[in-house]
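Thread title: Can someone regenerate the structure for this chain?

I was given the following input by a collaborator and told the matching structure tokens would be attached. They weren't. Posting the sequence so someone can regenerate them.
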Amino acid sequence: KLRIWQQNLNTSHTALHSLINSEIAKDWDIITLQEPPIDQIGNIRANTHWKVVYPSTKLTQNSRPRAVTLINAMISTNTWEQIDFPSPDVVVTRIRTSKGIYTLFNVYNDCTHDRTVEAMGSFLADNIRNIRPTEDDQMIWLGDFNRHHPLWDEDRNHHLFTTTALTSAQKLLELTADYAMIQALPKGIPTLQSSSSGNWTRPDNVFCTELALESLVSCSTSPEDRGPNTDHVPILTSIDTSLTPSPSIPVLNYREVDWKKFNNTLKKELAKIGPPTVITDEQEFQRKAKGIEAALQTTLEKEVPRTRPHPHTKRWWTKELTSLRKELKTLSKASFTFRAIRDHDSHRSRKEKAREYDKAIKDAKRNHWRDWLEEAGSEELWTANGYISKPYGDGSKSRIPALKTTDEHGNTHTVSSNENKSQLFAKALFPPPPAQSTVPQNYDYPDPVTRWTPITKDQLARTIKNLSPYKAPGPDGVANIVFQKSPSLQDHLLHLFNAVFTLRTYYEPWRESTTVILRKPGKPDYTTPKAYRPIALLNTTAKLLSAIVAERTTHILEDHQLLPATHFGGRPGRSTEDSLLLLEATIRHAWRQKRVVSALFLDIEGAFPNAVTDRLLHNMRKRRLPREIVQFTERLLTNRKTRLRFDDYISNWVHIKNGIGQGDPLSMILYVIYSSDLADIAKGNKELTLAFVDNTALIAIGKTFEDTHYTLLNMMERENGGYDWSNQHNSRFETTKFALMDFTLNRNKPRPTMMIRNAAITPVTTHRFLGVILDHELRWKTQAAQAIAKGTKQALLLRRISATSWGIPTKLMRQLYQAAVVPKVMYTAPVWIRPAYSRDLTTRTRVNPERVETIHPCPIPPNAVPSHTTAIAQNKKDAIKEFEKLKERTMIFTDGSCTEDGVGAAAILYVDYQHIVTLRYHLGSASQHMVFEAEATALLLAAHLLGTRDEVTYPATILVDNQAVIKSSERPSARPGHYLLTHARSMIQNALNKERLTRRSVTVRWIAGHMEIEGNELADREAKIAAKGTHSNSPTGNLPPTLKEQLPLSVSALKQAYNTKLKAIWNKTWKRSPRYSRLASIDPLLPGNSFVKLTASLPKKQTSLLIQLRTGHVPLNSHLHRFKRSDSPACTQCKGNYLENVHHYLFQCTRYNRERHVLQNALGRDATSKAFLLSNAKARPHLLKFIATTRRLQ
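Best answer:
Regenerated them for you:
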């Protein structure tokens, strides 16, 4: 049956909550609401069991919607659509059923005018043939028509049948007669109880066509389901026709998997394909790939539970509310039964219960939210931030409306079926390749810079570890967590992945993907495909392989410097900040040379989808990448196919013949390669190209803007210039969207218009580039205003989750502020913030950039095998036991030390427990180097001893007392000080290669410091000697090459030294503050985090009380009198003899002697110390108990 619930809610939020948080979705297909509660952005509140249909004028008119339709999410979206209607008071939906098409008009007709009825008449006159093309297609009008007539009202309400009322109703009756509409709700059934008189009337109605009436099963009211704060009862209509349900797509719940059972099942399934071995032919590859896929799918089917359906109620809905709803339902039924007896007790009881129910709903919603926030931990913190940060919606399931498209003749067509929508999306998202290739024939490619080497098990394990565990899977349904929890898979995958390169093959299902269509937030019109964005969900196994290849490709490009230096996007160690700093430096340098600068910001249409595969492969070979990577990319991008997914619909396969798939780990670096030729078009010192993925700016320097404009035009028009790149790479420039900016401080300097391909481009004064607003004078005022606006908006959002007396605890709020607000304000801050000058700070922190360490973005190859093994015991005792069991003849003890004199490192060689030699090295001052560097330098000294001393025997052990250095030594990364570990790693490898030994011959082992081990204690003393100065260094000839020159300054140490000076200035500024003397007597550790630690475990209300007591801004008369909130500052309990301030409240007021006695018994003499009470963690619970029992600060 088609089941419709119709009701006017009188804009009551509690009535809507009561309705939505019932099991109404189980029993009803459509809800038509009139006068629903609308929030400030024009939405109602729903849940995921419904799809909300607003008036089609919602986004084009500012008027408040007074009719909203909810359609059950279990109904296939392919069976219904919305029809545009030019009024905020009518929602028209068309539904395909087993007995034809039903068009539902959800109507709210204002009681003061007939504009809605007139609009319906005009609309039907123009569209009736589309609405009822055949006799089997029916119409139903449901709603609050706000008209009284003897045809439907009770005869006793004859006083309502005035001439004016009958005249108004006549227009509605004429409209029903014109379209043969028959009243479905029988005469005499009232739908509204007047809130003032209690009289029952009939403003709501249901009309339908004749055949619809023949299929009508029932149409009546349900007074017991009226709900709180509304005077209308629901009308329930049931029609004998069936609907097409939406397809059920099971969702796997990986968070509830028993991974031990999962792995046991997976091992049994993998055993069917044999042990993991090297794959030697294509047939075996396909068999193994298919076998692994089958093993995973079988295991998923057996061991991964399905996600249970969401409950029909919100989390805040309680059993008490359900009970109150039942009680109200019973009383509502009784009240309706005795409606003729106006003074019957049931009417009063119903009103009282409705008020109680209404208050209970509001309280439950508010209290649940606040309780959840009060109990929030680190995980819930980011959940709460997501609630307040994501685009504000109505809580329902979204649906893509009918799309509009324009044909070649300029005619607009509407596409409503899901099949046609998917075709429209496919055409927009996956454009075909150009008819002819632009790759030069017989191109002489240079030799690759390096050869491909096999993927290692370490590389595979590391890549799997770095995956996001619960990211949405692709068509195979396998989440990343499966690879992370299934070590038995790794050997199989390793051989399979390496066979992809040795056999030059690929597995066909890896080319399949699912493309999810999502709305772009903030778009004014969602009837165009451009208002949506695709998210590609790839086969997880293929995605893992792509991640490995992407890491290797990036390393080769960076290690051999194969990309333009001014291409900043998608590359490790580079950011938007670097690009903008280079732009600013270029402009200011030109100004100092009495030159001007112009920038042309390009707009590339459809960058990723329009990338041509053969041109990409050409660029990769031209950039000298290994042939194996080029061939892999070709196989990856060939014969791809995807299914579009939106709403409850999954399309047929769409074949992709062009473009770089967004969502693939390789996509970013592939597009960087694809667009690098554009970044290379700048020639000479008067031109510059800045590129960041698909954002590109051409920079020209000259004496006048005529010169710079000519240079920019030449950069675009010359051979191998911008337009040549555009034509060769199928990347169309939208010339009319170019932005031209002329940079100069001379406001009187003329800025002429620039002509490009018959398009006039007028210079602008501001332009957004890489998220930053540039201005032509580089004063950054507009950018600063934007940053303040963003930060203010985010800070205001935080008020939704924290207030003075409730909300997320202070410590977590501080963390959230630093993570959510500060980054929005400080994005690219080094570019546009000019700090205030401080002689004390500036003169002591000037550093020559050439002396600072350079951090290589990719220090070692991704598949590099560690040069040594490592061993870290669980604790100090275990470390000592393991040391005592060592049988190695060669041991090298290392240590690093940081003292007031400086930073030093030492390594001591022992052979057969005999001290052979010591190496020492002084790194520099503590403001320029870190202890981590010293420990890494000590490891470097140890590696040098391994390779140069003849006394060394193998296996050998290097003992280090710093676990961070040991862990990092296996695989140094792009971090400060890691270059030393890279050198140490290389030296250990060279020593082993010299002796033809494996990595197991050297172990870097953790040894606990200061445990009275002779070698370790000696290393500690020698490191302290080395820290005293360069005079304590070992002879230069005994040191490794890296240490024969002064080490570069540490980035971390410089930042730490700078922050230390900032804190010193902060302390001086604080001591000059008028508040210092008062707060210093309470908490002498300020400024600092002492208060954060004190209140870390307290709820917000108690934290707020402590803040008020410490600052004196507390609701006591002394403070309240300042704002005229109290007649006197004196304590009323002490007859006005004392000021009621914090001191009086805590120590003097006689009203609280009993409570104070309990406090003194708990704390003793400390209870008389204000500083102890307000700053000591031991006093905190007793003080809060004192406050609670006095009840003065409630």
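The mean pLDDT is 92.
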